[in-house]
Write a structure and sequence with these properties.
Length: 253
C-alpha cells in the first residue's frame, strides 16, 4: 500500500493511480481470465451476470449518494449524466436495462435477477461498501473512488472480443452493454480525473484519493473471489444462492 511522504504533482498523482490499476485492477483476477477465455460453462456465466447485476443496479444509487454531498449545481448537472447512462433517459433504455437483456439472453428470468435473491452474500456486501463509502466521503474522495473506470475500457474490449469468440451462446445483443461503455467510461473518467488532479492538493487529500482507489479495487476483486469460490473452485455455493443446472466445475479448472 502506498503511503505518501510528500505532496505529488498532479501528473505524479495520476501516475500513482495508474500504477494501482496496473497492480490491482480486476482484469488480473483468475475469474476474468476464465470468463474471457471461454473456459466457463453457461451456468458459471449465468452466475457472473446475476451477481454483477447487483453492481449495475448499485451504480446510480452510488452516484446519487455522491451527489448528495455536492453543493455545486454545475457539478451536479455534469455528474448526473452517469445516472442517466444507467437508469436510461428519453430514447436510451440505459445500462441496467441492457444488463437485464444480457441476463435474459443467458436464460435467466428477469424477475429472479431483479429480486437479487440468488446473489452471493459477498457480492451484496461489496456493493454496499461502495455505496456507503460514497455516501459518507467528501465529494473529492467520492469522485476518486470512480477512477477504476480509467482501466475499464481495456477490460470491456477484452470481454467483447473474448466472449463473442469463445461462447456459442453469446451474441451482439449480449455485449451491447459493454459496447456502450466504450464511449461512456472515457468521458466519465476524463472529468473525474481532471477534477481529482486539480483538487487533491494536500498530502492528506492525495492519500485519501489513493486509499479510495484501493478500496474500490478491493470492492471489484472481492466480488470475483466470491464467484470463484462458489462456482469454480471448490464450488462452495452458499445456502440459498443461485445454483446452475450444470456447474461444470471441471471444465474451468
Ligand atoms: O466490466 C467492468 O470491469 C467494469 C468495471 C467498472 C469499474 O471499474 O468500476 C465499471 C464498469 N464495468 C461499468 O460498466 C460501469 O458502468 C461502471 C461505473 C463505475 C463507477 O464506479 O461509477 N464503474 C464501472
Amino acid at each position: 500500500m502506498i503511503k505518501l511522504n510528500k505532496v505529488l504533482s498532479p501528473d505524479e498523482l495520476e501516475q500513482t493511480l495508474q500504477g494501482i490499476g496496473a497492480e490491482r485492477y480486476h482484469n488480473l483476477h483468475p475469474f476474468h481470465k476464465l470468463l474471457h477465455g471461454g473456459k466457463l460453462s453457461l451456468g458459471q456465466v449465468q452466475a457472473w451476470a446475476l451477481n454483477r447485476y447487483v453492481y449495475q443496479q448499485g451504480i446510480p444509487i452510488k452516484d446519487y449518494a455522491i451527489l448528495s454531498n455536492c453543493p455545486d449545481k454545475e457539478l451536479r448537472n455534469l455528474w448526473r449524466q452517469r445516472i442517466f447512462d444507467h437508469d436510461g433517459i428519453d430514447q436510451d433504455e440505459g445500462g441496467i436495462e441492457r444488463w437485464l437483456k444480457l441476463c435474459e439472453a443467458l436464460g435467466l428470468e428477469r424477475a429472479y435477477v431483479q429480486s437479487m435473491e440468488g446473489v452471493l452474500p459477498a457480492t451484496k456486501h461489496a456493493v454496499d461498501t461502495y455505496i456507503n463509502f460514497c455516501r459518507h466521503a467528501p465529494l473529492l474522495i467520492g469522485f476518486a473512488s470512480c477512477l477504476t473506470e480509467l482501466f475499464a475500457p481495456k477490460i470491456h474490449k477484452e470481454r467483447i472480443a473474448g466472449m463473442l469468440e469463445n461462447y456459442d451462446f453469446v451474441d451482439e445483443t449480449m455485449v451491447a452493454y459493454f459496447r456502450e461503455r466504450l464511449t461512456q467510461a472515457p468521458r466519465d473518467v476524463d472529468f473525474a480525473l481532471r477534477y481529482v488532479k486539480e483538487h487533491a492538493r494536500t498530502i492528506d487529500q492525495q492519500q485519501a484519493v489513493i486509499d479510495a482507489l484501493y478500496m474500490k479495487t478491493g470492492v471489484l476483486w472481492a466480488q470475483l473471489d466470491a464467484l470463484y469460490l462458489a462456482y469454480v473452485s471448490p464450488g462452495m455455493i452458499p445456502p440459498g444462492c443461485f445454483t446452475p443446472v450444470q456447474t461444470d466445475v471441471a471444465a474451468a479448472q
